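User: Continuing from earlier, I have the next pair ready.

Assistant: Great, send them over.

User: Here they are, in order.

Assistant: Folding the first of the pair now:
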Amino acid sequence: MFSLFRENVRIALESIKSQLLRTILTIVIIGIGIWALVGILSAVNALESTISSNFASMGANTFSLRQYEFEVQSSGSGEREKINPIISYNDVREFMTKYDFPLTKTSLSFRATGAAEVKYGSEKTDPEVQVYGVNENYLENTGTEVELGRNFTIFDIENNNKVCLLGSDFLKSLFKDEDPIGKTISIRGVRFTIIGILESKGSSFGNNQDLKVLIPVQVARGIYTQPNINYNISVKVDDKNMMEAAQDEAIITFRNIRGLSPLESNNFGLERSDDLINRIASITVYLEVSAWIISIITILGSSIALMNIMLVSVTERTREIGIRKALGAKRATISTQFFMETIVIGQFGCILGIILGVLTGFLFAKIFEFNFSLPWVAMIWATIITFIVALIAGSYPATKAARLDPIESLRYE
């Protein structure tokens, strides 16, 4: 039995070699369909994994107050229907004073600049460092860990101490093999003592999260005095069961700060970190469906091409089939041979498509600095789909070959 199967595989491979050009074209067509499926799903997985990991680090028990909701209503002209005021420092300070919901921690922060130059001794960085003004709860609420040293204390924030936390990239650019804790750096002529180094978070969308400096919020306000600074408020709830109540209390408190009447809608937004993850997941679903539609259409075309090449093969090998039948080959043996040819061609196309798809996803992740992972589900489905397509495309040619009359086949020229 095994020797017969091996012989069928050998004959199938010899037949494929004899019509190499048509076989290559069919393999390429199948490969393009699988490439579309695996490539798009690889890119989508990399995108979703990176964004989700960034937001997931904040935890599902965190929400933030911001100028706008994640989804902004727009008018027909594409402009915002309503322009919300920024979240000013007075808003933040009043919220910190009035919001006293139990088991919560409130952090405030703002991005002072994205083009700072940091100096250490005779060394200095390029003017591309991000500087943030934060309070003592910022790291915990954003899921950021300290790799070396310590976090800010409430005394650092209230006393406006000239201390700072650095991203991990500074270990390579400024300090190299030197211990940075306790050393002094200079930003805009102001000297800061380094108290900690943050864990690496990598980059996303070209934004290097490891090249930043965190300093006490009041100190940052003294150095960077640009008008209309938009602050961020983040609230972490220790007990997740109290999340809804904490959000309601935050909305009521901020509405009172803004002086809104009961009939007026909110002129600010509230977002939960897990809501953002769910929205991102819903967006990527559309991309995944598109990938399936494109690949199915392409694979349908390839199945027609595969059936055509096998029908041509049956016609060209009519006399060979007649000889084999005359020598005692059964219908099942003949049909198995042609099935083996279609399956081999299909799997070659599948392998080609998977390789191209994985490379496409890897390059996409590399260019945009996303987290790449092999799309195992897509690869498994691609293998199953091509196997099924090969069986369907090869069923009619195999049946036709098996039913050929041996006497008529031997007469065929």
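And the other member of the pair:
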Amino acid sequence: MTISAGSRFGPYEIVEPIGSGGMGEVFKARDTRLDRDVAVKVLAESVALNEKLLQRFEREAKVISSLNHPNICVLHDIGNQDG
């Protein structure tokens, strides 16, 4: 999947790439509902199709969402786009 500026994931509009790593790519995006900048992580296809890695990603998201500290990012949303 090619992701470029202007691509949409629900209410999130991609602005530009930030970086990439072992599980996927991270993009600067705009939350069009709340008019704020966010980071959107898009899983690599190899991760998204691997049930074990997908479960790991979801576990990490749940743990991160339970944390509250000024030096830790806030998780606002998790979802699935086009399967």
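Worth noting for the second one:
The chain has a mean pLDDT of 92. Helices lie at 45-48, 51-65.
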